[in-house]
Amino acid sequence: MVKDRLFIFDTTLRDGEQVPGCQLNTVEKIQVAKALEQLGVDVIEAGFPVSSPGDFNSVIEISKAVTWPTICALTRAVEHDIDVAAQALQYAKRKRIHTGIGTSEEHIHYKFNSTREEIIERAVRATKYARRYVEDVEFYCEDAGRTDNEYLARVVEAVIKAGATVVNIPDTTGYCLPQEYYEKIKYLKEHVDGIDKAVISTHCHNDLGMATANTFNGVMAGARQVEVTINGIGERAGNTSLEEIAMILKCHKGLNIDTNINTTKIYPTSRMVSSLMNMPVQPNKAIVGRNAFAHSSGIHQDGVLKNVHTYEIMDPRDVGIDDNSIVLTARSGRAALKHRLHANGVELSEEKLDKIYEKFLQLADQKKEVTDADVLMLAGADTADQHAVRLDFLQVTTGKGVKSVASIGLDISGQKFEAASSGNGPVDAAIKALKKIIMKQMTLKEFTIQAISKGSDDVGKVHMQVEYNGSMYYGFGANTDIVTASVEAYIDCINKFKRPTPDPSL
Questions:
Q1: Is the separation of the CB atoms in 229 and 237 below 8 Å?
Q2: Residue 139 in 3-state DSSP?
Q3: Whether pLDDT at 325 is above 50
Q4: I need a labelling partner for 48 at 20 to 30 A (CA). Which of 12, 38, 86, 339 fits?
Q5: Strand intervals (E) in 184-242
Q6: Residue 77: which of 14, 137, 122, 135 has the closest Cα?
């Protein structure tokens, strides 16, 4: 029997990034987008381009970095928004504009001070305008969860006739009960003329803890696209979790509905998003929580030891969790490191592994235990096969009541150079010393430090954006010492300018 295809629309980089404190820079967004591509999502909502220059640039760069998923940009039902979105999507191989407007009485009267008929006119106009740029247009009926079904059907029918290929039915406030949401989707399937010409999409929020239940019921009623996020992050209480929908369908094969998700990539992707957004996953979170496959009760332990299926409905390996516990310390060998990298979805050449192992040993000497997040950081930190400029040593003197002074040594294509400088803080002093050796007109445009939250020995992660010769370069550094991480991030940028020569005045 041929299975129904359910399309996975991931909005981690748009709705997920609206969470306070979870903002990502462009480099981090590209990293997440590539992970989503490997995971197998069909559509990546890359951002809201008109909202900020950063969002606009991120959509452009993600469009360049990702190959097969559709790249989607959000807009309001405003022509200028749509113009900007189309411009941001210019490099996307597959592109979609996601436009829409509120349809509930609350939105029509209080938000827009408008009428039902005017809202339909605006919806149609925006859909037609978006179709001037792209063939794939998705229309969202914001707050559809609180919109009466008869009027919602009128809006949906109108935008489909105007050219919408996907119609999004968001439970924006997380208000709907599962049966109520099921009936809403079913009503549209039965009462909208031409409904088969478009895909119905769900977009459910978790304000009452029913996002996954509502999404699943929407699928059962006929929706064939679900809008989800990694770890369920998102506005207020969050969105439907991608991992929950994917594993519901995997566990219940009798539903005969399939996705393109490579479920073994779920856990590593979850860890990456959690680390980059500094958004810890609650231990009892379904599928990806620390305790999702842990058994502490004696009765449960006895049952699992006799037969794992007594208390587990999923194989942890199906979601990318290796149930073999290997703790990484300074005494661990290359084989153990390779094993943990593989468990997290990272495959490396032996040469690359050797280079990462050296950094691993340095890190392990400073930490009691090296975590999966640290291992992923090490794997992503060394992005170039060869570095012409390397940090040889760094010594910084700083403190209250004293001027920060830094001494730095660089290896430039095998030649050694040293310099010292004072500055307004240890990072400033170290970068000024670096610039005494690398005498180029470089401007630091962005400097981001990921907050340390797991203890005083945790790794500090630094992203930098440096302008040189009219171009922007991104660099990454990681170390338990934040000053060292900052210098390494700056050097990472320099190595991307061009291959330097041994001349220190390069």
A1: no
A2: strand
A3: no
A4: 38
A5: 199-204, 225-228
A6: 122
User: Of 196, 234, 202, whose CA–CA distance to 13 is shortest?
Assistant: 234
pTM value? Answer: 0.67
Q: What does the pLDDT read at residue 385?
A: 40
Could you tell me the two tokens for 84? 């900007």
The tens digit of pLDDT for each residue in 161-193 reads 999 999 999 999 999 999 999 999 999 999 999
Instruction: Quote the pLDDT of residue 285.
Output: 92
- Across the beta sheet with 471-479, the strand order is 442-450, 460-468, 471-479
Q: Which of 56-70, 255-269, 440-454, 458-472 is predicted with the least confidence, judged by mean pLDDT?
A: 440-454
Query: pLDDT band for position 294 (50/70/90)?
Result: low
443, with CB counted inside 10 A (0-12, 13-18, 19+), is exposed
Which residue, among 212, 390, 378, 179, has the nearest Cα to 285 in the 3D structure? Answer: 212
- pLDDT of 300 over the 70 cut: no
What's 389-497's CATH class?
alpha beta
CATH topology of 4-276 equal to that of 389-497?
A: no
Q: For residue 463, what are the contacts with CB-CB under 8 A and spacing of at least 6? A: 25, 27, 28, 446, 447, 448, 450, 474, 475, 476, 489
Q: Report the b/e string of 55-80 with b at 16+ CB within 10 A.
A: bbbbbbbbbebbeebbbbbbbbbbee
Residues 6+ apart with CB under 8 A from 197: 160, 165
Question: Residue ranges of the domains in the chain?
Answer: 4-276, 324-381, 389-497
pLDDT > 60? residue 469: yes
3-state secondary structure of 190: helix
Q: Which CATH superfamily is domain 4-276 in?
A: Aldolase class I (3.20.20.70)
Q: What is the pLDDT of residues 367-404, one digit of tens each?
A: 666 766 677 767 765 444 446 888 999 999 998 888 99
Q: How confident is the model at residue 318 (pLDDT cuts 50, 70, 90)?
A: confident
Do residues 145 and 182 lie in contact, with contact meaning Cβ atoms separated by under 8 Å? no
Q: From start to end of 367-480, where are the E strands?
A: 389-397, 404-412, 415-423, 442-450, 460-468, 471-479
- Positive or negative, the CA dihedral 382, 39, 9, 63 is positive
Whether the Cβ atoms of residue 304 and residue 297 lie closer than 8 Å to each other: no
What ranges make up the beta strands (E) of 61-165? 70-74, 95-102, 137-142
d(CA 190, CA 222): 10
Which residue is listed with tokens 């903002």?
23
The token duo for 454 is: 């797991």
Q: What is the three-class DSSP state of 389?
A: strand
